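At this stage, I needed to go through a protein sequence along with its fold in token form, as given directly below:
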Amino acid sequence: MAKEVKTVGLKEGVGAGIIGLGLLAMFLPSAVQKIADMGIGETYAMLSGTLMTLGVFILVAGLAVMFGNFND
């Protein structure tokens, strides 16, 4: 019996792209630290928490796309 060769398809590519967007959203607060250092206000903590939560939701969505059982 020959083994079936599995390749990476569109679903996995889209899932990896969504996971990449989630990681970018999670690391954005560290890039925005310069705004907090300018003395604009206490908005950095709210921005950081919001983006970390958004990043987690995006990561879950990417995993759902990658491992979901969709009809091709």
Q: What stands out?
A: The chain has three helices and no strands. Residues 24-72 form one domain. The mean pLDDT is 77. The radius of gyration is 18 Å.
